[in-house]
Design a protein that fits this description.
- By secondary structure, the protein is α/β, with parallel strands linked by helices.
- The chain is built from ten helices and eight strands.
- Strands 3-2-1-4-7-6-8-5 form an eight-stranded mixed beta sheet, sandwiched between helices.
- Helix 1 links the parallel strand 1 and strand 2.
- The termini are far apart.
Amino acid sequence: MTSATVLVCAHNEEDYIGDCLESILRHKPSAGLIIVVADRCTDRTVDLAKKQLERSPSLILRKDRLNWRNSISENLQLGFSRAIGDALVVVDADMTLSPNFLAIILPQMDRFAVVSAIAKTDSSRSVLNRLISFWELTYTISPLGEQSCGGARAISIAALKAVGGFRDVYAWESDLDLRLRRAGFKVKLDKGVVVLHRRRMTLARSIAYQIQAGRARKERGISPERTLLHSILRMRPFVLIGYLTH
């Protein structure tokens, strides 16, 4: 049976960390270790995580300063350095997992170096969330550009070691998948596994996500023509802006 460390990276996630950890703790099989990387938290994230995890094998790692350009990549590498078992399961602090997530994902690790889930936006959080959830339905018609979820995936620890761990990049998940494929490993997007993205979206945050995605596309060497097409077809104009300003 595949053993796993679940890694949750959090920066001021007091509104979400409790539900996230609860969704992890109710799993059977359970995680061998849960690691929370608290990235320069100034709210109650650490206190809530401590209380939630007091009876479970866990580590809470506090990070007080930024050493890498991309904080999430640094957090992942920090957690990876303390991971145990066969698989590292990365879960975003603002997501909740279905009760059978580990039971479905972990048995596939004997064939794949990465197994990722699909993330769906919680439409109940705001009007913008509802609009985004409707927009996500377009993938059922045209899956062009549909991406695996970085914040809900299992990664083979042996494979991750083989490619040198995480790197300081914008799109760590795309970078990792590419390096694993180049090294001869297989990766999988399991569309039968869905996680709920619970963050209450705002216009400013939505724009920031698009700009970040554009920068990631530039970093990965995707052409401006493809990026322009993506921005038009997927109705994400700020992806192009992020690409051109990177």
